[in-house]
Amino acid sequence: MTETDIRPTGSPDLSFPQDRTCPYQPPKVYADGRGQGPLSRVELFDGRPAWMVTGHAEGRALLADPRLSSDWGHPVFPVVVQRTEDRGGLAFPLIGVDDPEHARQRRMLIPSFGVKRMAAMRPLIQDLVDRLLDDMLEKGPTADLVSAFALPVPSMAICELLGVPYGDHDFFEERSRDFVGAATSAEADAAFAALYGYLHGLVAKKQAEPGDGLLDELIARQLEEGALDHNEVVMIALVLLVAGHETTVNAIALGALTLLEHPEQLEALRNDPGLISGTVEELLRFTSVSDYMVRMAKEDIEVGGETIKAGDAVVVSISLMNRDAKAYEDPDTFDVRRNARHHVGFGHGIHQCLGQNLARAEIEIALGTLVTRIPGLRLAVPVDEVPIKAGHDAQGPVELPVTW
Amino acid sequence: MRITIDRDRCIGSGQCVMTAPGVFTQDDDAVVALLPGQEDGAGDPRVRDVPMACPVQAVTISGE
Fold this sequence. Notes:
The structure holds two protein chains of two kinds. Chain A is of the alpha+beta class. Chain A has a domain at about 90-290 and about 330-404: CATH 1.10.630.10. Chain A has 15 helices and eleven strands. In chain A, helix 11 packs parallel to helix 15. By secondary structure, chain B is of the alpha+beta class. Chain B has a single domain (about 1-60), classed as Alpha-Beta Plaits, CATH 3.30.70. Chain B has helices at about 15-20, 50-55, and strands at about 1-5, 25, 30-35, 60. In chain B, strand 2 (about 25) and strand 3 (about 30-35) form a beta hairpin. The N and C termini of chain B lie close together (about 5 Å). The mean pLDDT of chain B is about 95. At the A-B interface, helix 3 and helix 4 of A face helix 1 of B.
């Protein structure tokens, strides 16, 4: 696909974020920053300057560095789209706090996302995938792969894991989408308030009538013991529900699109289903659904020949770290046989994705089953007509018309 | 080879188990543990990659 330069190469004040033009390629204007070394300068929408980190080694070192903060509640924490901080003083657990607060919350949750627990989820995910594909094939031969498949797989799985009734999915899928994808603070705030209200009610209901999901465990073990308060349980539920909805859907849809656009790679995978787990890692590297992470320096940090000063905004470019030629040979080539180890598709450091092994299982089962069961699958529109999400959002198609 | 794990740093990502499943496991709290008898890496060359794979440097390796 062709890319359009918005600013001259090497411009010191490139505005961040930029929209992708090709769904699976970082914007070309970011890639030009690779010529400038592992760090370059960008400008956020509010005029605030920020460091953009594009080197794989430097980015990993920074994401693992406790001097870089994720404290969203800090009065001058950098933001990439216009949002108010009016959340009624509620902190965002996990993603929006630093250690030791973060470690306390994460420790409560990791047993529910452990390797063994996720292995036990696989038959359930396979069953969901089979049923969704049965339904899609029956209604075919065309579908929107996002709404018919890529969204309901993670939505049903996270509901099952959390103990949230899937029957309410239209409600929270729409609000999750609005909360993450909103371009204005008013839209984001309204979606947040609706989700908070829904989960507040659900937690109260579960206290009266316990079920057997992760939320029920949190309520029983932590709320009752006084380790968590009601608001914290609701906020944890909100973060997990939104994270479960707004990430894996893109990984499945963008993964399918990327495979369809690389027919020789898709053929290799069809001929050798044993390539599926390597394919998933390569897709995570190549597509970088979470295109960037935002941090703020708490102290001066020397990195890549530069000094990030205390208080500086830092944008860690996941998509460019995953395309660093120092880390991967022919980084812009999609190769399902590649060893994509140490990719940062799930981030790095203490905030590395809590649900990564659930996501791996979902993506692997969804894409592996999709390509096997529908060998004639193809895009129903040219790839440059597939609508994609804005640069600040999780990356992926808004809808993906397919036929077979 | 000697493997040292820091269970306090561990965030339960499971990267170690994914990289060298014959040596690493997770306990019931999903925190890193070594499989019994595998403390020396059991000759698995993939163990060498685990310190880099771990997102929080909870695994270190010393010796040959």
